[in-house]
Amino acid sequence: MSTRENNDDRIALLQGTLDLLILRTLLLGSCHGQGVARIIQRQSEEAFLVDHGSLYVALQRLEERKWIRAKWGVSDNNRKARFYSLTPKGREQLIEKIGEWRRLTRAMDMILEPGSGLKGEEA
């Protein structure tokens, strides 16, 4: 699925991050699983490659939590596929998870802030 030659350049997803990425992707509208994976990969400029095994486990977990719903449809290539969409409860979770992610990145920025004395650190 990847077009990138060096897989080491990819960023490993932190636990829970995939849920956030899926919820955010579905905010754009209903989509089948492979489409969700492609959107995440494209929007991350190929940095994130979503493993299909992990993706479908996450989609199932989110559906069980009632954060997303699924219904059968036909994909662009005329194949039967499950299309996922965000529920109102999922929208609430998306807002909460975005807040958690912003708090985490703000804390990381405080620790990694330029001027910490590391050689070769970019400003």
Architecture overview:
This protein is an alpha+beta fold. The chain has a single domain, classed as Arc Repressor Mutant, subunit A, CATH 1.10.10. The protein is built from four helices and three strands; from the N terminus they run H-E-H-H-E-E-H. Strands 1-3-2 form a three-stranded antiparallel beta sheet. Strand 2 (68-74) and strand 3 form a beta hairpin. The longest helix has 25 residues, at 88-112. It starts with 16 loop residues before the first helix and ends in an 11-residue tail after the last helix.
Approximate shape: globular
Provide mean pLDDT, rounded: 85
Examine the secondary-structure arrangement and name the CATH architecture: Orthogonal Bundle
By CATH, the topology is Arc Repressor Mutant, subunit A
Main sheet summary: 3 strands, antiparallel
Distance between the terminal alpha carbons, to the nearest Å?
A: 35 Å
Task: Give a brief description.
The protein has 123 residues and is α+β, with helices and mostly antiparallel strands. Helix content is 48%, strand content 13%.
Topology:
Elements: H1 17-26, E1 31-32, H2 33-43, H3 52-64, E2 68-74, E3 80-86, H4 88-112
Antiparallel strand pairs: 1-3, 2-3
Question: Which tags fit this structure?
Answer:
123 residues; alpha+beta; Arc Repressor Mutant, subunit A; 3-stranded antiparallel sheet; 4 helices; 3 strands; disordered N terminus
